[in-house]
């Protein structure tokens, strides 16, 4: 049985990775002042209300990536959203 999933989605550099790290209580995701560092999904189980949920960090929504990975980042965000919606 898989865990319920919560996707953290938002604009670039608004603290999505910092939130994941705070909820996890350790450094899971890279935090950097440069926009576009998170490109793939990063996830970890987090205790919540006597159980666990899978928290998923995503890249910034709407970023124009200089390495031409914008479509890849959008696909990763959409995958995380679909995963969260089906859990």
Over all CA atoms, what is the radius of gyration?
A: 13 Å
Structural class assignment: alpha+beta
Largest sheet report:
3 strands, mixed
Strand order of the main beta sheet, please? 1-3-2
Distance between the termini: 10 Å
Mean pLDDT: 89
What is the annotated CATH architecture?
A: 3-Layer(aba) Sandwich
Tell me the CATH superfamily: P-loop containing nucleotide triphosphate hydrolases
Helical content, roughly? 25-40%
What shape does the CA trace take? globular
Report the β-strand fraction as a percent range: 15-25%
Query: What is the CATH C-level name?
Result: Alpha Beta
SSE order in H/E notation? EHEEH
* Number of discrete domains: 1
Our count of helices gives 2
Number of separate strands: 3
Low-confidence stretches: none
Predict the CATH topology.
Rossmann fold
